Each structure stands twice: as C-alpha cells, then as structure tokens.
Protein: ascorbate ferrireductase (transmembrane)
Organism: Parnassius mnemosyne
Amino acid sequence: MTGASESRLPGNVDQNNIEQSPFALLMNLTNTLTQFFLGAVAFSAIYFVNIFAGSSSLKLHVYLCVTGYIILMSQAILSLNPYTSWTKNLKREDKKIIHWVMQITGSILAIAGSIIRIIDVQPNFRTAHGIVGLVAMICTFFSLVSGLVNLISMQFRNNINLTKIVHSAMGSLAISTAYICLCLGFHNLYRNVFGDKNANLSIVLAAFALIGTLTSASTNIFRRIFS
C-alpha cells in the first residue's frame, strides 16, 4: 500500500529524473540482487525437500511456507517499491491490487503450511525452528489482520498513514521471523545432507534476501512517514 503519490519519493526525487538519481541506481541494484537471492533461496529449499527422505507433511510444509513467505510475501513487499523493475511502470492502483493479492495468498499458504507441520509433529515446539516458526505464524496472522483493517479503513478515510505503517511493521516482523526459521532449518536438516559449506551458503543467501526485502519495506515506511 502506498500512502502518497508515486511521484513523491525519498529525497524529493522528481519522477522524471528518478533514473539519474544515485539513490535510484542504488535501489535498482539492491532490488535486482534481492530478486536473485530470493530465487536462490526458494530453489535451495525446494530442491532439498525433494531429495530428502522426509514425511509428506514436511514436504508440504516446505512447499507452502517457501511459496508463501519467500515467493509471494517477499515479492508483495517489493511490488510497492518504486524501484522494483517488474512493477515500476505500473499505476499505483495496479501495484496495490498486486500487493493485496500476493500478500493475502502468501499469508494463507504460509499459515496453512505451519499448521500442517504443527499437527503432524507433536513435540514441534521443543526445537528453535519450531518455536520461531510458531512466532512467524502468529506474526503473519496479525500482519494479515492489520492489512485487512488497513484495506477497510481506506474506504472511509484517505492517507491513513498510521494503519499503513503498522501493517508494514507487522509484515516486516513476520518476514523476519520466517527467514530466521528458514535459516534454522538450513542449519539443522540441510547441513546434515549437503554439508557445512552448502548449508552456510544457503544461510548467507537467505540473510541477503531478507536484508534486501527489509530495505524495500523500510523505504516504503519512510515514504509514508515523510510524504
């Protein structure tokens, strides 16, 4: 969601000169690298679960959570950034629709994936991965609720920055805990199958993907506060 016109950007950069701004070049590079890291992390997790002799609930858990958090929710955050290549030429209203569809779908998939694993593994909360995963699921639920509240409130008042900022903050918290949970999964199961080097590489890729996604989220929050 954007609380101001797309023409009002950090540093009062004019929309027509955005491509010549050093800040814009930096953000374009950051978003391009973030897209690469997101793809690498998603591939790494899905490839692993396909060759790992795990239960069907584990495979479904990974499919749903990776699709929900890494592919959809992360891209939903990036879609609102004016420097994201695949949405930069879209109208603000089109970006908002894309964001809502990806965010709601991703949240539902991620929550469903977490519930499936919780039901199947009874001592799930005895591990760091299980505990952080539960926190991520709760944060995702509240992020979804805050987003729906924001969507409804927009029908009655314009430029309600507070609800937008709360939603952005909750979404960032949900994504952060989800990535931490994923890194814990890489540290445990992934390391046992592919070894230390590959596990460490996957963790680093996930960390960079999270940093890039949060950078985009922070830029959006900054624009809402000072717009």
